[in-house]
Write a structure and sequence with these properties.
Elements (H helix, E strand, L loop, with lengths): L5 H6 L1 H26 L10 E3 L6 E3 H8 L4 E4 H4 L18 E5 L2 E6 L2 E8 L5 E4 L2 E4 L4 H7 L1 H5 L2 E5 L3 E9 L9 E7 L2 E8 L3
Length: 201
């Protein structure tokens, strides 16, 4: 009887190459299945979105201070090492001075005079006006279903760092599905909790 351990096979170059091909194929299959699953999801129309009823996603520092006030704190992105910068240049380069601005739990990205919403928390009376709807911390998943029926149908549960298990709705960032980015809407206890612009590493 031949007894060959799994670790011995992995150490063998031939079997190791086969193993990595199988793992890569499995991951690719999972990614394709997921992509196919969300292909019917709606996109989040940022042109019809106003944070706290007034502010567009991309704005400047004076607008930030006018409607949100002074930041509670800030951190350099270079110290946080995110997968991507909102204000990243086409060649992949980044400004070392880019930073996160934190206000009432929400997170904004800042480059010079430019500011963009990265993560928006529906607390401290924060809300968004989306098309003709007001979305805030009391908004239920049933209310979101009216706006994003296909995405809500595929709602998932995700283990979020420092938050625990939350429901998440995945939306496309653009109507043509050209961007790899997603808008992820998180719910806690069935109510709108926060939203985040996610981009793969």
């Amino acid at each position: 009887m031949i007894n060959i351990s799994f670790s011995h096979l992995i150490r063998n170059e031939y079997y190791r190459s086969i193993f990595y091909v199988m793992v890569s194929f499995l991951l690719l299959s999972q990614q394709q299945a997921y992509a196919q699953k969300i292909s019917s999801h709606e996109f989040f129309d940022i042109d019809q979105t106003f944070f706290n009823g007034k502010v567009k996603r991309f704005h400047n520092l004076s607008t930030f201070k006018k409607y949100f006030g002074e930041a509670d704190s800030s951190k350099l992105l270079i110290d946080e090492s995110p997968c991507s910068y909102i204000f990243e240049y086409e060649d992949g380069s980044k400004d070392a001075g880019d930073k996160y601005l934190y206000k009432n739990g929400s997170r904004f990205e800042n480059n010079g005079d430019s500011v963009a919403v990265d993560e928006f928390r529906f607390q401290s009376n924060n809300f968004i006006k989306y098309k003709d709807s007001i979305l805030d911390g009391s908004t239920t998943i049933e209310a979101l279903r009216k706006l994003f029926p296909n995405a809500v149908k595929d709602v998932m549960e995700m283990d979020v760092f420092r938050e625990g298990k939350l429901q998440v709705i995945t939306l496309f960032e653009d109507a043509e599905h050209l961007s790899d980015g997603q808008v992820r809407i998180f719910l806690k206890n069935g109510k709108l909790y926060f939203m985040h612009w996610w981009f793969p590493c």
